[in-house]
Amino acid sequence: MSSAELDASAMRGAHARGERSVRLTIEDTLARIARIEPTLGALSAVLADSARTRADELDAARANGFEPGALFGVPVVLKANLCQTGVETNCGSRVLAGWRPPYTATVVERLLAAGAVPVAVAHMDEFAMGSSGENSAFGRARNPWDLARTPGGSSSGPAAAVAAGLVPLALGSDTGGSVRQPAALCGIAGFKPSYGRLSRHGLVAFGSSLDQVGPLARSVRDVELALEVLSGFDERDSTSLRAAPVARSARTSLAGLRVGVPQEYFGAGLDARVRATIETALGELEALGARRVPVSLPSTALAIPCYYVLATAEAASNLARFDGVRYGPRVDGDGSLEGMQAATRGAGFGAEVKRRILLGTFVLSHGYAEAWYGKALAVRARLRAEFEAAFAAVELIVSPTAPTLAFRLGEKSADPLSMYLSDALTVPASLAGLPALSVPAGFARDGASELAVGLQLVGPFGADAEVLAAGRLFEGATRHHQRRPALAAS
Ligand code: GLN
Questions:
Q1: HEC profile of 378-415
Q2: Which of these, 473, 432, 466, 428, lies nearest to 177 by C-alpha position?
Q3: Known catalytic residue: 154?
Q4: What is the DSSP-derived secondary structure letter of residue 333?
Q5: Domain containing 170: what range?
Q6: Is there a domain that residue 405 lies in?
Q7: Total domain count for the chain?
Q8: 399, part of any domain
Q9: What is the DSSP letter of 330?
Q10: Model confidence over 7-42: pLDDT tens digits?
Q11: Tens digit of pLDDT for each residue in 438-458?
Q12: How far is the CA of 323 from the centre of ligand 1 (A)?
């Protein structure tokens, strides 16, 4: 059986029992990459040599009686903002071209400790700013369901790689939706944990109060497996939750579960086909025994402006470190220190990153900070309070993940505002720090294309296992996640 048909746990099982060598799986994966990647364009680097070496080491360790870990021999793809010692981690930016970090992100260390094999680094929007993958300085991935369309962003490459069957598991990052939205548009599962659940050590910072690493996989079961491996306190991240790793919930039924449907998420900007697919999914949840409860989150419309003030303010501060002195290539400019920094940043950052640095600097500037940054903080507190009030009456809140179907590459890249609106349904959970999952809800037709629609499940802070269990039970009953794009079969 080809590795493309196996999920991570089945693959791990075959390796652990010795039915299949890790080396065979890795060769199979590299061959698939060679076949599909030229069409897909998801990867910025294939780590063929290190993956083969590691596969042989794992096979040898098993032969010597070493106890196989939870992801033993599972090939994984990593977004280009997760540090790996000695591996180019360019964040999709020319300012970090060729930068090889001297350390490895905690989440990657944990993957390695569980026996996973990193096989490639994947494209992303520059510094994770974007919703289509088109802001990368190095290459833009295509949607495996329709190659003329975006896979979503900013974790465009990781999502496309999983959906096209290159690997069963990838890690992305989600600041305002960058794991959930591409998961939705690619027809796979993607999870943003509660803030602090996964270590940010070694994740290049964008908006530090929002950033979370998130797993992408073809099934929620594999997301649960990944979360179990990746979670748990990390002393190298001051915002890491002091909590044990998240164990899979034992829930086996959705009977009696109160599911809140916020009216504000079904407003004018929602595509009619997305709405219809989500309505069907809500009916499926009810058929599984869940109770549908209307809820209201009145400040939802303020989430986008609030997010684009706070995220840009934090990004402007975080990106100040890329000054031509400490990281990446340098442009000398007029030879003065300031001139060198201006020339390096001018040449190194793309248009969207510059726009955000300017916006973020403005909202923090003397005389304006209270009016903009301070107000946004107040809105964030209000959004959080509204979620808390809603969770007094329901266990979960469900909605579409993205307001539209996958759009065409180039369709929104000249219009930042319409691009920002693709995040309207994902940023609220980010601002509130809540666990949020996108799971395949079904498919809708646009012209000749069948395009994926994602259902978003949001839970109270810390209820990561419950959100995933509900998603797993939904997927087990609906099986939308078993559909594969034609490209994956090639
Ligand atoms: N699309 C959003 C943005 O551009 C979210 C990005 C993200 O989650 N990294 O900021």
A1: HHHHHHHHHHHHHCCCCCEEEEECCCCCCCECCCCCCC
A2: 428
A3: yes
A4: T
A5: 3-257+465-489
A6: no
A7: 1
A8: no
A9: -
A10: 999 999 999 999 999 999 999 999 999 999 999 999
A11: 999 999 999 999 999 999 999
A12: 23
